Amino acid sequence: MANVVIYTRMTCGFCVRAKSIFTQKNVDFEEISIDLHPEKRAEMIQRSNGGMTVPQIFIDDQVIGGCDDLMDLHYSQKLDALLIN
What we know:
Family: Belongs to the glutaredoxin family.
Number of helices: 4
Domain Glutaredoxin: 4-64
Order of helices and strands: EHEHEEHH
Keywords: Cytoplasm, Electron transport, Redox-active center, Transport
Helix content: 40-55%
Pfam family, one: Glutaredoxin
Distance between the termini: 6 Å
Largest sheet: 4 strands, mixed
Function: Has a glutathione-disulfide oxidoreductase activity in the presence of NADPH and glutathione reductase. Reduces low molecular weight disulfides and proteins.
Number of strands: 4
Radius of gyration: 12 Å
Structural class: alpha+beta
CATH superfamily: Glutaredoxin
Strand content: 15-25%
């Protein structure tokens, strides 16, 4: 299974939705809360090539983007291929 990392904020509904997609697919993910670890915000921006909003989602170090990008992959049946190593 792929390595999934999600940068989040605790009060972000889009973050909750993105995490629920992975949970429904039984995919483990690492959640990095920029609320609890504000020093990780700069890391998130650098890794995502300037993404300032949350969630920022990465699959095997590939920038996926935010929740809308994840949902596009999910509904176009392309997400599962990214999750399989």
